[in-house]
């Protein structure tokens, strides 16, 4: 009987778990692989909904829980949280001894995981490399993780090129498409009445879903930018609003308080969720007119529903975008102008023809490709990674 390869998946937030879900499912059911799960970050925080419980509810066994989120949103607390994460990962990896660690994205929790795996001599499979987000600290973290990783799964051809540009060997870079798009393809979304009952919210003729995160490479801009957004939202008539809370980023609590206060004053037309779950969130996209804010889901998933995204500010600047996305400055007039554009006949015509650039090519889905690589890739000498110099 052959020994199973141990594939350790790290998840630190509701968003990355939703994207990793099908990869975890495919690893779990494969006879040649053993799934290990490390849960950390916001999953273990009361403030962010203790979302590790959803992972267990979905039938997964959590092997290790690593507490690392300090109850503050200052730069100092984020740095300290990263340090705590490294301490936790040091012991967890020593116990689990995975053959490959799976990391998605670019948050500080993933930086702690990647560094720990590097020192522990564990090969890393990285999803989401090669992307650009001009306004977020995620940008340098993402590229740093790419350099620590050994296998790369890119969601767009431009991102694949950028990973190679960073010195990675072409044979270890796989173009797989968006994992959020895979989730949409593989689940049955909720019907409108069922969704309304589950989230205790009645949709109206016009509906918006708002997710706004701090632009973490800017100082003290979160409050003003979000107040500008609330001002513009208040100018809309007969429009209902669903807010989702920001992540545990610097200045994130400022936005949380503004959302809570706004909903208290506008219970007739708004609600908020700390955690909706991937299925409910994606079902909401089916029934809203637009995603508003600066969330990556507005770039990567919303176009699959042929709805608009009003992308505010620099947090997602320079990502590959569909024609359904309206970019605007984080100021009152540009935001209001963009919100009104959603309902114009000219723009609705554009939406009807939108194609999501993150659509997986062909019939092979990201999770299937990943599992195939995990099973077949040769790990001997993989840690001694040479830099692939490009010829100019």
Any overview of this molecule?
This protein has 392 residues and is of the alpha/beta class. The protein has two domains: 5-178 and 360-376, 3-Layer(aba) Sandwich (Rossmann fold); 192-351, 3-Layer(aba) Sandwich (Rossmann fold), CATH 3.40.50. 41% of the residues lie in helices and 16% in strands. The protein has 15 helices and 13 strands. It has helices spanning 14-29, 52-57, 75-96, 108-119, 138-148, 157-165, 179-186, 192-199, 222-234, 252-265, 278-287, 296-300, 332-341, 345-351, 366-376; strands at residues 5-11, 33-40, 64-66, 100-104, 124-127, 151-154, 173-175, 206-211, 239-244, 270-273, 290-293, 308-312, 325-328. The strands form two sheets. Strands 3-2-1-4-5-6-7 form a seven-stranded parallel β-sheet, sandwiched between helices. Strands 10-9-8-11-12-13 form a six-stranded parallel β-sheet, sandwiched between helices. Helix 4 links the parallel strand 4 (100-104) and strand 5. It starts with a strand and ends in a 16-residue tail after the last helix.
